[in-house]
Amino acid sequence: MDIIRSYLTGERPFVQIGYTPKEIKRKDGDEWTDACGKRWKMVNGAKVSVNSQAEMIREMTRQKCTCGQDIRYGNRLDAKFFLKTGKCFDCIIKEETELRILGVYHHYENYKMLSNYLGYLEDMKQKIEESIHHFETESDTLNVLCNSEGFLEKFKGMNTADLLKAAREDLIEITKAITKVTKDKKKAKRIFDTELARVKKANTPKT
Predict the structure, then answer these.
(1) pTM
(2) pLDDT band at 181 (very low <50, low <70, confident <90, very high)
(3) Does the pLDDT of residue 107 top 60, yes or no?
(4) What does the mean pLDDT of the chain come to?
(5) What pLDDT, on a 0 to 100 scale, did the predictor assign at position 36?
(6) SS3 per-residue string spanning the chain
(7) 41 forms bridges with which residues in the sheet?
(8) What's phi and psi for 7, nearest 5 deg?
(9) Can you list the domains of the chain with their CATH numbers?
(10) Residue of 199, 196, 192, 179 lying closest to 112 (CA atoms)
């Protein structure tokens, strides 16, 4: 919805037409249903979609770091880092400190930055594809957009053909970017692995 709203407001890919919806302050644990019937919940300061089946699966799966830390009983940073790395915050800090000591952190940092950027691009590509599908299945003029706060945002009549063209052009550009960043990420990973292995070998005591 955010991407579609960006196109509606004339941004590529991402000036508000109509009105700005009322902002609602929510706290952790709050649940609500939007005007489209979709359920949401505030978790660790972030808005997440509620899926009862997925929640059951998560409850059945014990999320533990390799050090034994149960992420469910950790802090906000533990949960955030575990989602991305499978490890708790303390373990990540320990590993990165070791890489700094070995002098290869800059290679690691370059690889991680490219990994994060690639993840962002892939997520954005999916949202643009969903937007294209939305524009393709909408009527010629789009007037109402449902948001996740439970409001219906009203826009002046917008020709979906122009929006669809812009979205398709953005899809081409982001696909090119993903191809390039994927190659850069693989190269950065090779360099990091090679340098790490070299440094570890050099620091291994000879017998």
Answers:
(1) 0.63
(2) very high
(3) yes
(4) 75
(5) 45
(6) CHHHHHHHCCCCCCCCCCCCCCCCCCCCCCEEECCCCCEEEEECCEEEECCHHHHHHHHHCCCECCCCCEHHHCCHHHHHHHHHHCCCHHHHHHHHHHHHHHCCHHHHHHHHHHHHHHHHHHHHHHHHHHHHHHHHHCCCEEEEEECCCCCEEEEEEEEHHHHHHHHHHHHHHHHHHHHHHHHHHHHHHHHHHHHHHHHHHHCCCCC
(7) 31, 48
(8) -65, -40
(9) 68-94 (no CATH), 103-207 (1.10.287.370)
(10) 192
For range 98-105, the mean pLDDT: 94
Q: Are 180 and 102 spatial neighbours (Cβ–Cβ below 8 Å)?
A: no
Decide if 35 contacts 159 (C-beta within 8 A): no
Question: How far from 165 is each of 7, 13, 142, CA to CA, in Å?
Answer: 11, 12, 15
